Amino acid sequence: MIGLATGxxxxxxxxxxxxxxxxxxxxxxxAQVSSDSxxxxxxxxxxxxxxxxxxxxxxEQHVRDYFTKRGIPELIAVAQCESSFRHTLKDGSVLRxxxxxxxxxxxxxxxxxxxxxxxxxxxxxxxxxxxMAFAAYLYKKDGLADWNASKPCWKKPVHIIHLTAxxxxxxxxxxxxxxxx
Length: 181
Hints:
Number of domains: 2
Number of strands: 2
Number of helices: 8
Strand content: under 5%
Radius of gyration: 21 Å
Helix content: 40-55%
Oligomer: single chain
Shape: elongated
Distance between the termini: 33 Å
Largest sheet: 2 strands, antiparallel
Structural class: mainly alpha
């Protein structure tokens, strides 16, 4: 479990640069929370205070690195929704869609509609790197239109959630300062 101060720092670091600046009261609040928090290593059972989040799979890390380097973070969310960051199954076969088995790989590219174009580009959709390269091609050509079926999943406004949480922290800090005066 992470401390409140760590969570606040993680939350605020996720806010896009230049979008929101903390007010002086919010900075004071963050400093107060930080000084009040308990260091996990000082608890009697430090292992109980550590996170139990599952380790990131190699495929997920590969997808994140690939699209981060290309400046397309939206496709990371698409991969999570479309395939749960899986490209292959335990038996080594390439993941196929449950609704349409012509959707393949980590980005669930439809081989019927997109296969011929991928082939013309020299890409093999069964290869994870080519699957992601074709997804980047589609994104640059048409945005996220090819993944509209999973839009309710990947279109969650994470940045708005972060901004709202930062604004709430600033409001709380401001009210605490007002009460103290």
